[in-house]
Design goal:
The chain is of the alpha+beta class and 196 residues long. Helices cover 22% and strands 28% of the residues. It is built from 4 helices and 8 strands, in the order H-H-E-E-E-E-H-H-E-E-E-E. The chain has helices at residues 26-48, 62-69, 116-119, 129-136; strands spanning 74-77, 83-88, 96-101, 107-112, 141-145, 150-159, 163-171, 177-184. The strands form 2 sheets. It has a 4-stranded antiparallel sheet with strand order 1-2-3-4, covered by helices on one side. A hairpin with a 5-residue loop joins strand 1 (74-77) and strand 2. It is globular. It starts with 25 loop residues before the first helix and ends in a 12-residue tail after the last strand.
């Protein structure tokens, strides 16, 4: 029978670095706690973040709005003296912020217009290129299909706030919307590089 050496008085026996099964090592526990705390902090900060365009109070002046948001990229007249400022994130973004002012230059509303809800407002056989331009801004791309005799304007957006998509407006020769089509955004499609 093998005898183990006795510990000397006042001297602790040596320890090994191996932890017993199921035990949590102090360094790993600290890492886990730090990671959890960082994730919780990130989540709480993102929950508190409100974009500048959503912070503008009603009746804000155009000067104050511009001080907060910067100079608009596009400006269009709407019905009844309303002026629309647009802040697009194209060519790769899926948002365009519309800031509408009344005839006195006071804020009426702010809206993210590249959305399913806003696209549903378009009326087939009624809306024109001008209506689409003034509501959504300049398209990210245009194309023409000679056999169909249709010009197509395309906008990037997140369908139902989830799917990266393209909204396509088809105009006839008179510039009237004849149909719309939603297609996947090729920028976000997965490509299979192992086909061969």
């Amino acid at each position: 029978m093998k005898h183990l050496p006795r510990a000397r008085a006042g001297i602790a026996p040596p320890t090994t670095s191996a932890a017993p099964p199921g035990a949590v090592r102090p360094v790993a526990a600290l890492r886990w706690l730090a990671t959890g705390a960082l994730a919780a902090l990130t989540l709480s900060l993102s929950a508190c973040y409100t974009p500048a365009w959503q912070q503008l109070p009603p009746s804000t002046s155009q000067a104050d709005a511009q001080a907060q948001l910067g100079k608009p990229k596009e400006v269009y007249p709407l019905a009844q003296g309303v002026t629309r400022w647009l802040y697009p994130t194209k060519p790769f973004g899926e948002e365009t912020i519309a800031v509408d002012f009344d005839a006195q230059g006071r804020l009426l509303r702010t809206t993210q217009v590249l959305s399913t809800q806003e696209f549903n407002k378009v009326e087939i056989d009624k809306w024109t290129k001008t209506d689409v331009l003034h509501h959504f801004g300049e398209p990210v791309e245009t194309s023409y299909f000679p056999l169909m005799k249709r010009e197509v304007w395309t906008y990037r957006f997140k369908q139902d706030d989830v799917w990266f998509s393209m909204m396509n407006f088809y105009f006839d020769a008179d510039g009237i919307v004849k149909t719309t089509q939603i297609s996947p955004d090729p920028l976000h499609e997965k490509r299979d590089n192992n086909m061969f």
